[in-house]
Amino acid sequence: MKIFALLSAVVYGQTTDPPTTVGTTAGTTAGTTAEPPSAFACKTCVASNVNDCLGNATVVECQENETTCEVTMRKRRGGTYFVQMGCKALDACLNNMNNNAKGPWKQQECKPYNNIKFQNSVCRQCCDGGADCVETNFFNAAGTDGSQNRQNWINDFVTQDDQPL
User: For residues 158 and 127, is the Cβ–Cβ distance under 8 A?
Assistant: First the structure.
């Protein structure tokens, strides 16, 4: 009889209401809170040239640890064949960008010129001025395509404090 009373108390004390979702994060249940959305976003695209990348770019909200936008441009024998833009962690983006002009000229990765004598080139740049920072500071700086200007690949467009690498 004591067992019946105990089981009755357990069964009648339970609720049959399903858990409710809080916020907009899928899988979040009552009693927990959803993470607030990140305030930082970048234009994201992958294309074979700058114009197609910018023309087809979408704004994507970055993950919490991604506080910069990165652009990568690859060239072979002076012709652009790959452009990618998107969110990147600050330290990873700066590490990539620092390889643009690292070491003696022949070993440097970034040779953005439209010149057939340069076999391969990969250039990366970072910025943290919002979704349009690459376009504003880099590709359309002074109304020109900055992708062939080597100094634009070396300039610092990151305004937040650099973290130790």
Answer: yes
What are the pLDDT digits (tens) for 100-159? 999 898 888 998 887 777 788 999 999 998 888 888 877 765 545 567 778 888 888 888
Tell which residue, 120, 131, 126, has the closest CA to residue 155.
126
Q: 70 is written with which tokens?
A: 């990165």
Pairing of strands 41-47, 79-88: antiparallel
CB 46 within 8 A of CB 81: no
Beta strands 120-127 and 68-76: pairing type?
Answer: antiparallel
Predicted TM-score (pTM) of this structure? 0.70
Q: Give the list of residues 6+ apart from residue 9 with CB closer than 8 angstroms, or none.
A: none
**What are the structural domains, with CATH classification, of the chain?**
41-154 (2.10.60.10)
Task: Please answer whether residues 123 and 117 qualify as being in contact, where contact means their C-beta atoms are separated by less than 8 angstroms.
Answer: no
Of the candidates 150, 156, 157, 159, the residue with the CA atom closest to the CA atom of residue 101? 150
